[in-house]
Amino acid sequence: MKKHNTVFEALHWASSFLTEHGRDANAGRILMQHLYGTDYTGITMRIHEEMPEQKWNEFREMVEQHAKGKPVQYITGTEEFYGRTFHVDESVLIPRPETEELIVGAIARMKKLFGENVELKLADIGTGSGIIAITMKLEWPHAKVTATDISEAALETAKRNAAHLQADIDFRLGDLTEPIAGEKWDVILSNPPYIAYHEREEMSDVVLEHEPHLALFAEEDGLQCYRRLAESLPNLLNQPALIGVEIGYQQGEAVAKLFQASFPQAEIEIVKDINGKNRFVFCIIDV
Ligand code: GLN
Fold it and tell me: What range(s) does the Release factor glutamine methyltransferase N-terminal domain occupy (predicted)?
């Protein structure tokens, strides 16, 4: 290729190179936006500009990494969640859009149960990059938010995000609810690992080779974290209280049953995501 490609030529090259490697052709555009620190419109405005050699080399390297299977978000080091930019690296799961719906569903139920932006104690179990804890703190400033994770590296990433987004969070290292035991909580949210090990075969190499398995997989057909949450939470909740968890689309009935066994008096809902798949279980404990 000649030395001074225009942005247009580079994007054109990237889209055919990525297609040849079975990847999403649009990734080139996202990587270009990252390289120039701009958005879609910004790139369109520079589309006929020549790229300095260094920028072209960087671009080519990023596109090649993605062609080999590295997720775009780990290349740019960022992902958007609930309108904010979070830092991500291979210590944490890449935020998924479904999890934004967990936030929406939790806030709607919290408003009904407690009243808007009242003071309350909220814990995010298995915080990963910190998206749930940080978003809740910023959307519900009167919440006292605690976030736990078993991975020290993940907790470092979450702390970095909290500092950057100026969210005051109490981070605690440990397994599931262990770090929040001995206290009472009003809201518990979690998007724990929920993929069964036997589902590996159907998963893409982009996920399997890069995202932390600790954040993806769980024993007992993916249900272990929900079982352990359901067992430990009865001692840890105020009344009223709300529990909201993200689940695998086939786990609705099983997860609802686990929580119903621990909270026979609770109102338990299995809620679908925007794609019409069971994706969340909410438990309202209010008697
Ligand atoms: N809570 C984080 C998220 O929703 C991490 C989830 C996880 O690692 N299983 O992305």
Answer: 9-77
